[in-house]
Design brief:
Elements (H helix, E strand, L loop, with lengths): L6 E2 L32 H8 L2 E5 L5 E5 L2 E6 L4 E2 L2 H4 L6 H11 L8 E5 L6 E5 L18 E4 L5 E11 L25 E7 L11 H10 L3 E4 L3 E6 L5 E3 L10 H4 L10 H6 L1
Length: about 270
Amino acid sequence: MTHRRNRAAPDAPPAEEESGASHRQRPRHRERTFPADGYEGRAYRARVEPMTVRPLRDGRYVVESEGGTYVVDAERATCTCPDAAIRGARCKHVQRVAIEIDAGLVPAPGERERVCAVCGRPTFAPVSESGPALCERHDHEPGTLVRDRETGALLVVVDSMDERADGIRTDEGRLVADYETNAAYGDHEPVFAVVYVESLPAEATDDAAGWLDALRESRRYLFPASRLVGVEFGRDGSEGASEAAGTGRRSEDESAGADDEPTIGPSERAEA
């Protein structure tokens, strides 16, 4: 699976293109310029001159500029242009590739472009990884606080299961995707294991060791990625989330009793 280490591919338009168009409406690789105040020489030209950067399958990049088309090796900081090949300079093409990598517009060496399994937005993932990918918006690192869209319950992510909702079974023998409360979420989505915060003993929050012990001992539940909404807390302690966290109602599976929830059994928990 790739979703635990994915890097987002945010839209970082140049200064003259601050439009409100959505990320997916823009071509991924197009001619760009960048703000250049305070830069000089090659660093200045790397930003102000229109160029198009395209990643190659071998980890290098093609840079199209007014002066020609060249191939850049970002890891070795080499380029096929005369300035680099003959003068040995860190040319504007090498610098442009570094700028676009830092801006999240092209994948870094060792990464490739993927599509988020939930929203379809571009994201970057290691070339050695396979399986469904997630963008930063829908990825959930262990220890992250999230809310269940169906119930509004506060949860803690404890593991990424490296399985799709239609490929992992609970201790009841049911696929996560087969639960009625998961019908609105993609069968292809990666699954996360979570613990209900309300199930943790009050003293568990006194120190980090107690918190970790409580998470290990608590019953785990399986959820498709998009059923979970990331939670953020402001300085004043108020809670915010990237999207609506749910209705506050109990789902049908939950109201039927804890044994009806998608859970990891003891043997599965040891493997998670």
